[in-house]
User: Fold this.
Amino acid sequence: MALSQNNQFTAVDFRYFRDTGLTGATPRSNVFGTSGKLYSIFVNNTSGSPATGYLKLYDTNLPVTEGTTVPSFIFKVSANVIENFNFPEGLTFSSGLGYTISDSPGTNAGSAINAVGNLILTFK
Amino acid sequence: MAAAITSLEATLGGSVLSDTAVTNTVVANATVGGAGATTNIYHIEFDNTSNSSVTYLKIYENVNPTMGGSAATDEPSLVIAAAASTKEYFSVPSAIAHATGFSYIATTTQAEAGSPSAPSNACSFAMIYTKS
Assistant:
């Protein structure tokens, strides 16, 4: 048997952000503290009594006000679904990344939903 | 030889929508088969490489949305911002379900507005989906 390995020339520098209590009541602002690209979203909307939500992402480093700040990206997340969004080239956030969720599409604030069990963002 | 073939229960995407000239005119009721068809979106490509400004692809869970309308279904259920000279694409293995079909538009106007602005040049848009 002949084993071989290669050196890893570049460090693993992706960053993960995990949120286990997102309801939309409190928007998250500039969670990475920098510009960059978003490569994946994992969201588990099966916990408790889940409802359909709209995950809204904001390209801004300023505090997010749901219903006023206009999202750059919106993704529908149905109730009782585990979604995995993959962005091979990354979505561009030129200022920063904030997010929230609500029961209403578009910019509207709508109402909070029951907490999403797990939201994981991969960012670089 | 012990080859076996297993029939797949369902295909990943039964239709491919390709639109090479998306602009600020709403393409209403875009699902094959028309209104009322549940659309499961698996893959989207949005090409903004011919423009020097950010352009937004907006998809509505509504077969005839009113731009700037007050109803929730007049608001986009899916928005993708494509940076200047950029092509964005993404896949969703579990699909994004749109129960009543969908419509779409490409605009440089980020907020919802009655008269969304057109990109300088039309964008391209492709989608893989199933309907049920």
User: Anything to note?
Assistant: Residues 35 and 101 of chain B are 6 Å apart (CA to CA). The beta strands of chain B are 15-22, 39-47, 55-60, 78-82, 87-98, 103-107, 123-131. Chain B has a mean pLDDT of 88.
